[in-house]
Design a protein that fits this description.
Oligomer: heterodimer
Shape of chain B: elongated
CATH architecture of chain A: Orthogonal Bundle
Radius of gyration of chain B: 24 Å
CATH class of chain A: Mainly Alpha
Structural class of chain B: alpha/beta
Number of strands of chain B: 14
Helix content of chain B: 25-40%
Structural class of chain A: mainly alpha
CATH topology of chain A: MetI-like fold
Largest interface: A-B, 23 and 29 residues
Number of domains of chain B: 2
CATH architecture of the largest domain in chain B: 3-Layer(aba) Sandwich
CATH class of the largest domain in chain B: Alpha Beta
Largest sheet of chain B: 6 strands, mixed
């Protein structure tokens, strides 16, 4: 026990910090891209005011293709692109690009389905009042979908935490990397256990926070 | 004020069977009047009202509001014109996540009304729909009737010249329906707003409409002032709608049985005739014996219609004479069970 506290415990704060960094930064960018993609999907969908078969089908295909690639493969597959965008392929910086590419289409799909659940009658009522489409997106669709979007982002955050576990493969560190290198490769079972427990606590915390927030936004 | 001119709407279908939802429909609503379109579901009435503010673009024909042909307007001009055409819906269509106050204030803000004016208007129209004390409630905390009142306040707050009502009372119970209808009448009378409504409920027509259109399979099959329609319905569908309101219909078997001796007659009285004891005069003058089968009085917005089904017994000549006497007195006479 003392051994664990002396030797391994000091590694945890750094690993938690790295995981936190990877998740927040990539979440930030993937939400921006995801929301834009979702709105484009909604607007260009057949039967909508800006319906455009070509754009809609293209986005659909793009999202499906990216979502078919497992993150661990995407990570290596994208190395040249990552290098082009951020200049490096390793460390926290190097892993953000593949994490965003992995999470953005997923978030786009989740937000798309949240937006589809918004009562179309309200959208129609606002159109009948002569309100501009971009105002309807912001003040009706995104507003009414807020509780569902919060829940969707909770799910996305949790799966991002899962994806960061593989970031160690490009030297970005984090909790997953800690568990793998010390817990698995060095047979330090305690490191593995503590990591798992920490992850469980973090995931639980995020999920309850998301649930509570969504519940508060919902007014029915 | 509102005019649809030869409006046709065809929905293309993938299987090549195009659906004609509206077929060459022409309606014209004068300023300050309330006109109603009645029909069964699927008759095309929803498409009709959605063509008025171009939520549905007509395949053919013209749509005029206040002298402007909407089908010719640019997208931007159409958007501006819509601001003067209020609309209320069967399912209210309020923001779930906003309070009553915000549900009215948000559209005003988006339409660029100055902040100080917004508060003033919201309060004014909340007062008109009698919901001031519910200002901070969310829609989920309101009853159906209250939600519709919020929707009406929202529509009125944009100070429209025209109000379109898409089955606004169809999701409400009879008592709430009446209170919403009274509110619509009040809006029409006090604010001078022209109203076009669609419904499948005859009592909506009865209580507030000046003029009625009956629609079936995308065609207007009958139209006229509410009084005309209630006193001289021509089409079978119109009669069916009238039957929903009063106990007008007797079974064919009963009528056939009674027709063996004498005649079964429906008398429809209008306005002042309802007050005259015509029937007793007939009895005295022509020696016939009327037996009353059903009787009722329907109060319309612009008048009263009395409805009487009688079994008239007497010799054929006397019966004919009494009928022509009644006709002379302005009573609508219809022999039932005679094909």
């Amino acid at each position: 026990m003392q051994n664990f506290i002396d030797q391994w415990l000091p590694l945890f704060p750094q690993a938690i910090k790295e995981t936190f960094q990877m998740v927040t930064i990539s979440l930030f960018f993937s939400v921006i891209i995801g929301v834009i993609l979702a709105i484009l999907l909604i607007l260009t969908r057949p039967g909508q005011p800006l319906q455009n078969k070509f754009v809609y089908q293209f986005l659909n295909l793009l999202i499906n293709v990216i979502r078919s690639i497992p993150f661990i493969i995407l990570l290596f597959f994208m190395l040249p692109f990552t290098k082009l965008v951020v200049g490096v392929t390793i460390g926290v910086k190097g892993v953000i690009v593949p994490l965003v590419v992995n999470a953005a289409p997923y978030i786009a799909r989740l937000i798309e389905s949240s937006l589809l659940e918004v009562n179309q009658g309200v959208v129609e009522a606002y159109r009948a009042m002569g309100i501009k489409t971009h105002q309807i997106i912001w003040n009706v669709m995104l507003r009414e979908a807020r509780p569902a979007i919060v829940l969707a982002l909770t799910i996305a955050t949790i799966s991002l935490i899962g994806a960061t576990a593989m970031a160690g493969l490009v030297g970005a560190g984090g909790l997953g990397d800690l568990a793998y290198r010390f817990g698995h490769l060095r047979y330090e079972a305690e490191v593995m256990y503590v990591t798992v427990i920490l992850l469980v606590i973090i995931v639980q915390g995020i999920q309850s926070l998301g649930n509570r927030l969504a519940e508060r936004m919902k007014k029915d | 004020m509102i005019k649809l001119e030869n409006v046709t709407k065809i929905f293309p279908s993938k299987k090549g069977k195009d659906v004609t939802a509206l077929d060459n429909v022409t309606i014209s609503v004068n300023k300050g009047e309330i006109h109603g379109v009645i029909g069964y579901s699927g008759a095309g009435k929803s498409t009709l009202i959605r063509c008025v503010n171009l939520l549905e673009t007509p395949s053919k024909g013209k749509v005029w509001i206040n002298g402007i042909d909407l089908t010719k307007l640019s997208k931007e001009k159409l958007r501006q014109t819509r601001q003067k055409v209020g609309m209320i819906f069967q399912h209210f269509n309020l923001l779930k996540t906003a309070t009553v106050y915000d549900n009215i204030a948000i559209p005003l803000k988006l339409l660029g009304i100055p902040k100080a004016k917004i508060a003033e208007r919201v309060n004014k129209y909340l007062q008109i729909v009698d919901l001031v004390e519910k200002k901070d409630a969310y829609p989920s905390q309101l009853s159906g009737g209250q939600k519709q009142r919020v929707a009406i306040a929202r529509a009125l707050s944009q100070e429209p010249q025209v109000l379109l009502s898409d089955e606004a009372t169809s999701a409400l119970d009879p008592e709430t329906t009446n209170s919403i209808l009274e509110l619509l009448l009040k809006i029409n009378e006090e604010l001078g707003i022209t109203i076009l409504l669609i419904t499948h409920e005859m009592n909506v027509i009865q209580k507030i409409c000046d003029y009625v259109y009956v629609i079936e399979n995308g065609n207007l099959i009958e139209q006229g002032s509410t009084i005309e329609l209630f006193t001289k319905p021509k089409q079978a569908t119109t009669k069916k709608f009238l039957n929903t309101i009063s106990q007008r219909k007797l079974s064919d078997r009963l009528i056939d049985d009674l027709n063996l001796e004498g005649k079964v007659i429906r008398l429809t009285f209008l306005g002042e005739n309802t007050g005259q004891p015509l029937l007793s005069r007939v009895t005295q003058q022509f020696y016939v014996e009327p037996n009353i089968l059903t009787a009722n009085i329907i109060e319309l917005k612009n008048g009263i219609v009395g409805n009487l089904v009688i079994h008239l017994i007497g010799n054929e000549h006397q019966v004919e004479q009494s009928l022509s006497f009644l006709r002379e007195q302005g009573v609508e006479v219809e022999e039932l069970g005679v094909n």
